[in-house]
Design a protein that fits this description.
The chain folds into three domains: 23-52, no CATH class; 53-197, Penicillin-binding protein 2a (Domain 2); 236-572, Beta-lactamase (3-Layer(aba) Sandwich), CATH 3.40.710.10. The chain is built from 21 helices and 24 strands. The strands form eight sheets. Strands 2, 3, 6, 7, 11, 19 and 20 form a seven-stranded mixed beta sheet that branches. Strands 13-12-24-23-22 form a five-stranded antiparallel beta sheet, with helices on both faces. A two-stranded antiparallel sheet has the order 1-10. Helix 10 (236-253) packs antiparallel against helix 21, helix 13 packs across helix 15 and helix 13 (308-317) runs antiparallel to helix 19. It is elongated, with a radius of gyration of 36 Å. The N and C termini lie far apart (146 Å).
Length: 583
């Protein structure tokens, strides 16, 4: 009986073990074979982490590779409200960061103490971005020593403008709002999509239970892709020369604003571009939109007499007049359409050459009458007025050029002398590429090339001709010879003459239109010209808005043109074309 009972027990235990073994074998089969992919993925999520990595924002250079906008390494400090602790701990931490980072403690406390939004846990808030590395390292050590939890430090960069105010209105700037980069103006905004780094989801690094990356295991970290670098057509030394000249105008004439722009007429490349008022993008404490708005792009003015060579040049090209055609300038007082038109002097008979040299309103108006309304409108459109230059800036002004059916009796006599038509500084210098560029209007360029640092690919912006406006090479020589006389004895801008060089230029003095009437106290004073006259290295436009003490372009703007031009010619090493004999 005892032996039978013992044998039965053996059989039962063996059966149980066999069944258990079969179950374990089946379970291992399911785990190792059937569910291997599913379980491996779950395990992988437990012991690996995926990290989003950003490259650096692209940098901006001048045409020769001098840095205008770069990046400084720094740290972004963030916190996880779920790990920081209770309100007392949040308050303590907010006070600490307030002392260390000069930020408002209440704002930080509210961020730290807010654990959820719409029933969703908040896992990360910004304490402060772009903290200097030495400051961040010190905070990191103190945070550890004081036992604060849930604070993280991320490698980051801060946008840096090493030249401060130089070219700032063109470059623009960016803001950082929490986790977002917000481009505000200028090249920074216009080319934000190219400058912005590409986010890379860096696979995968193995980690411990505490989230610390392991030095062994399957690590596959990837570098972020940086944004593309932009090379402008701007030449930094010329930009510095121009801005120094504008500072001198501000100091002497105390204007509301002053603009300057220089262009290579052969390529349309903008060599320098500046305005006052301006701003320092590294110092946001006193910035306001009136300072960082690019007025050269967005603002308009009546160009005054700077319009005259453009219209007279086209009339010459069409064979309607010659340089020696004589017009009666009515002793400086002429009634047309029931309204008077004056000259600055009591001129009688003047040739076309003298009309340009002495800037006769009446003579120019009579030439325009020979053109007729429709031809005049077509000419103004050929020069680019009433149209955008299509440079990559926001809110570019189109100016005001009314269609012919909206002209009044006076329009045909006023538009050619720069009244009743609104142009931007960009449009005006664009039009002058015709006179300085062998009759062709060249498309303006501010970007020379874009380089992809990741691939080495380089895109060069092409040089383009918009339209051939003046067909006859003799016409171009004739109008340039007339414009040379403007800076010589008998002309309106003796102070624009550049020693050693022939200058072709034109003054402009225009009354401002305020409250439905022309002001007798507020003016734009301007000078535009190119030098050397017969083979121009550049066109330079200077506009002074509401100068104090004098309002004539030949007095206010012309001297700045001379000084800026002379320094630029020496920098470019352009040989003298009209040497001064020294005995």
């Amino acid at each position: 009986m005892g032996r039978t009972s013992f044998a039965a027990r053996i059989i039962i235990i063996s059966t149980i073990l066999i069944i258990l073994f079969i179950y374990i074998a089946y379970h291992l089969y399911v785990v190792q074979i059937e569910r291997s992919t599913e379980l491996y993925s779950k395990a992988k999520r437990k012991y690996t982490a995926v990290k989003n990595i950003y490259g650096k924002r692209g940098e901006i250079f001048d045409v020769n590779g001098h840095l205008f906008v770069g990046n400084i390494p720094c740290s972004d400090i963030r916190a996880n409200p779920q790990l920081v602790g209770d309100k007392a701990k949040c308050r303590e931490l907010a006070g600490y960061f307030s002392r260390k980072l000069q930020i408002e403690p209440l704002k930080i406390f509210k961020r730290l103490a807010t654990k959820t939004i719409n029933n969703r846990k908040i896992k990360e808030i910004v304490i402060k971005n772009a903290v200097p590395l030495d400051v961040a390292e010190n905070i990191k050590k103190e945070i550890k020593d004081r036992g604060f939890k849930g604070i993280y430090f991320y490698d980051s960069i801060k946008r840096y403008y090493p030249k401060n105010e130089l070219l700032s209105n063109v470059l623009g700037f960016i803001n950082v709002d929490q986790l977002k980069v917000l481009p505000v103006s200028g090249i920074e905004k216009a080319y934000n999509s190219l400058l912005s780094p590409v986010k890379v989801q860096a696979s995968v690094f193995e980690r411990s239970r505490k989230g610390i990356p392991l030095t062994y295991g399957n690590n596959n970290l990837t570098e972020g892709k940086s944004g593309k670098d932009i090379y402008l057509t701007i030449d930094e030394p010329i930009q510095a020369i121009l801005e120094e000249g504008l500072n001198n105008i501000v100091e002497k004439w105390r204007p509301k604003a002053v603009y300057g722009i220089m262009v290579d007429p052969k390529t349309g490349s903008i060599l320098a571009m500046a305005q006052r008022p301006t701003f320092n993008p590294n110092d946001r404490s006193s910035m306001n939109p009136d300072s960082w708005r690019n007025r050269i792009v967005t603002d308009g003015l009546e160009p005054g007499s700077t319009m005259k060579p453009l219209i007279i040049g086209k009339a010459l090209d069409m064979g309607i007049i010659t340089p020696d055609t004589i017009f009666d300038c009515e002793k400086g007082y002429w009634i047309y359409g029931g309204k008077r038109l004056r000259d600055s002097h009591m001129y009688e008979d003047l040739t076309v050459t003298e009309i340009v040299q002495k800037s006769s309103n009446i003579g120019t108006a009579k030439i325009s009458l020979l053109l007729g309304k429709r031809r005049l409108f077509h000419i103004l459109r050929q020069y680019g007025f009433g149209q955008k230059t299509k440079l990559p800036f926001q809110n570019e002004a189109t100016g005001i050029l009314r269609t012919v059916n909206r002209w009044d009796t006076l329009s045909i006599t006023r538009f050619p002398i720069g009244q009743g038509i609104l142009v931007s500084p960009l449009q005006l210098i664009d039009a002058y590429t015709v006179l300085a560029g062998n009759g062709k209007r060249i498309k303006l360029r501010i970007i020379d090339k874009i380089i992809n640092k990741e691939t080495g690919f380089e895109y060069k912006f092409p040089i383009k001709t918009e339209e051939t406006v003046l067909q006859n090479p003799m016409t171009i020589k004739q109008i340039i010879d007339m414009m040379k006389l403007v800076t010589k004895r008998g002309g309106t801008a003796l102070q624009a003459a550049v020693p050693g060089y022939e200058v072709a230029g034109k003054t402009g003095t225009s009354q401002k239109w305020i409250d439905g009437a022309y002001s007798h106290s507020k003016f734009f004073a301007s000078f535009i010209g190119f030098v050397p006259a017969d083979d121009p290295a550049f066109i330079l436009l200077i506009i002074v808005d509401e100068p104090q003490g004098n309002h004539y372009g030949g007095v206010v703007a012309a001297p700045a043109f001379r000084n800026i031009s002379l320094k630029t010619l020496r920098y470019l090493d352009i040989p003298e074309t009209n040497p001064i004999d020294i005995k």
